[in-house]
Amino acid sequence: MNTPKRGLSRRELLIRSGVVGAAGLSLPAILAACGGDDGGNGGGVGDLLIENWPEYIDLTEDDVPGTIDRFIAASGVKTTYSEAYNDNLEYFAKIQPLLGTGKTIEPDIIMPTQWMAGRLRKLGWLEKLPTDKVPNAKNLEDAFKNPPSDPTGEYSLPWQSGIAGIAYNIDATGRELKSIADLFDPAFKGKIGMLTEMRDTVGLLLLGLGINPSNITSFDEAAGAFEQLEKAKSNGQIRAFTGNDYIDDLGLGNFAACIGWSGDVLQLGTDNPSVRFVVPEEGATLWWDTMVVPKGAKNVEAAAKFMDFVFDPVQAAQITAYVQYISPVKGVREEVAKIDAALADNPLLFPDDETKKRFFPFADLSDEVEAQFEEAFSGVIGA
Amino acid sequence: MSVTTKRGRVGRIALNVFAGFGFIYLFLPIAFIVAFSFNQPKGKFNIVWQRFTLENWTDPFSDTALTDAFVTSLKIAAVSTLIATFLGSMIAIALSRYRFRGSAAYNFLLVLPLTTPEIVLGSSLATLFLGQSMVDFGFGTIVIAHAMFQVSFVALTVRARIRGFDWTLEQAAQDLGASPVRTFWKVTFPLILPGISAASLLAFALSLDDFIITFFNAGSTLTFPLRIFGASRVELPPQINVLASVILVVTVSIMAVGSLLGQRRRRRLGQTA
Amino acid sequence: MTAPVVSRVGSLTRVSSERAGLLSLVLVGVALLSVGARWVSGTIAVLILVLAALVVVGWITLAVLGSPETKRALAPYGLLKPGSMWLAMFYLAPLWTLLTSSLSAKKTRFDVFPTFSWEFSNYGKAFSDFGPQFGRAFLYAGIATFITILIGYPIAYVIAFRCGKYRNILLGLVVIPFFTSYLIRTIAWTSILADSGPVVNILNSLSLTGVLESLNIMDNGKLINTPAAVIGGLTYNFLPFMILPIYVSLEKIDVRLVDAAQDLYSSAARAFRKIVVPLSVPGVFAGTLLTFIPAAGDFVNAQFLGNPNTTMIGNSIQDQFLRQNNYPVASAMSFVLMAIITVLVIVYSRFFGTADLA
Hints:
Radius of gyration of chain B: 23 Å
Strand order of the largest sheet of chain C: 1-2
Low-confidence stretches of chain B: none
Shape of chain C: flat
Largest sheet of chain C: 2 strands, antiparallel
Oligomer: heterotrimer
Strand content of chain C: under 5%
Order of helices and strands of chain B: HHHHHHHHHHH
Distance between the termini of chain B: 33 Å
Shape of chain B: globular
Structural class of chain B: mainly alpha
Mean pLDDT of chain C: 85
CATH architecture of the largest domain in chain C: Orthogonal Bundle
Helix content of chain B: over 70%
Distance between the termini of chain C: 41 Å
Low-confidence stretches of chain C: 1-11
């Protein structure tokens, strides 16, 4: 759940240099700041290690400083940014032997998806955020305040948000798609992709069956979606369960249609106009990835500084322009509009209230129910 | 060959053609990998040919995460190969130099790790480490995991290479007054060295490329294959192909140089003998 | 404690020093195994390690102070000791912990240390939930092994008998592709076999897709994400492990034997059948093991080249262990996989004589 882009479009370069200019920073200034600050830590704050999903932030490229370098320049915190977060379950399995036995892990900030953040919180594996040191948290969009996964809002702040809807390649489908039912059209047999992220796939199928995934409390309520999924798998309708690599299958036409994430498709759409994304008429699942501090992290204060930095709309606009997901920060739209009006008008980046009503986050499942869901899902995807 | 019938000749040609196709099959993906290192992909996945560029090669280390993982892999391979070469060569010498009780059983033990599926080796080691509260997954556990299967590999390869070694040479040196230590370093070691270096080179390559066993024992340490696996879900930058091609060229050169040296050495020994 | 030992060293006969050597080797091996497998723990474990260290020290003392004959008898055990300790600790002990883990139960959903409790239901679950994956693993690995023999044998034959002084170069060519990363090779096949890729295009222009679909190799116009692609990937990735052992056994055959036979039988095919084939059986045997065993436990090919209906047991073990944190069931599956392979290998050896992999 991340987004990405290899080369930089000219438009983006403009955006990025524009925002950098607005922030009053130039590359030489930043380099000077970094150079003068080699071993030192600004204000006695320790080094910061962030582990995020791959290509989920604007990194310095072609002399345009990325968010991390701008943060280093502004705060003086020596920051290491790693893209070691590939998969919620895999990452969890890696940290479990450590956090589960009272040891600590290296990173100070990790970016689990909201439901995983909830699991970590319930297990007591997270530090409380020093909210007083994140004044910009006031810019948090209301929709993300006190979610079921973090009812008091003390443990997590959203990083980016997005929706899972239907992505398709019109050259392969030959028609516009509107409904979740289109994924089960026999004409697309063997050309349909679904996500390995259980909540996005099952959530969307639930919506297709007219069930609101936000209100699920037991496995039985979702059994219909699992049956549908199992059938589509067995009869060969589904070609593969994927992570972000569906983008590639979609571009190649290996997939006619698949469940996909909004930001990815926005990215590919600019290169390949045949690839489109639609919020199905039945609705789409809403997800967000969060910034959390693992228990026992050494540099909670530096982590707070970083969170504060990216909750500044000027900086957040920079990230949004690059990753093209929905920002959880108020005021980003105005900042993006200053540079590129077209981007600020994109309904997938800045959905109107009417559309937002069709976005449904997946319910916060109880431990026992979640286990049932995961077992059933892993059974279906055939692993 | 004696009488070659027409049918025989046709069969011969057919067989050679078949083998030729076999080699094309073996090299098809390699050709793709090398060719795509010169590709300028549109988007994140370097799997559709767009257009030729030298850009990836001018900056092979531009993907820092990939480069870091590659360096980690080199370090792990170096340490584990050192351990495995040391332990494995000693086993090989013991097995080929001496006749002793229990050597048959020992041979069997040695072959076992190579006939155990990698996934069993990987998961079983992980259960060992999981139970030891003072061990954390990471660099050290990967080194152990690699050296574990490399030991058998080195031992069997070295043993095969020194099977024909004439151990009476040692006796002769000692009869002439050389101490056992001196005998080893001056006589035995130089003669078995080619076998050991060939085995350790292959062991190094095995470590560098190991994915399955590493996957179970890596914790959050990323090796080159692990990074490729993780990244393959979001991107496949052409630098992967560049680094893969570099590894290919380097190993082929080492192999070529090694076999040339070996030939010269054999010729020289052949002349003096 | 060394003083009395030293005084007796001179009197040690060859047989008794051999016994001492073997005994000490077994002792240190068992000591490390017991610690690694957690038969013992805490202070006892430390004591055992200290004892093992003392045995090693004792052995060194014997070897240094002993008569040349004693030294000679002890040497192999000494050389084997470090390697044996290593294998005991990191090969044998893990198999034991795998077994205990497969009979353990998790107290809570995210339990890091499942408790040993004779939990045989893990094995029940391994079979009932993952039967198809076991089946596919052995089916695909079996077919792939068979195809590697079909492709690999002629290649090995041509290299061994038709290439004269170019033999070594061609052998090198067989090995070279395998110095690029396993994962990258497999990923390369995804571009080669893609729906709009070169192979499908060629097949389309030759109008062969219909034929291949009726043979179940292609499915709905696609080559990739099919069982055939998975088997093809396995075949490709393990082909050298078939070619090399066959080559080694063919190389040993005296060509004059074949020539003589052809003179006598005057049929190349018959000479091949009567002489070459029987003499190359050990190579095929070794190649089969080296191909089938890793192929049966593989999950990379199924992951990149397969679809949700082609997953193999390796995918399940990986998923249960590294994503679902279900160590007990994953261990049970690993253990069953190993057990089945061991049985198959034993049965197979009965038919083809003894294994000589080395």
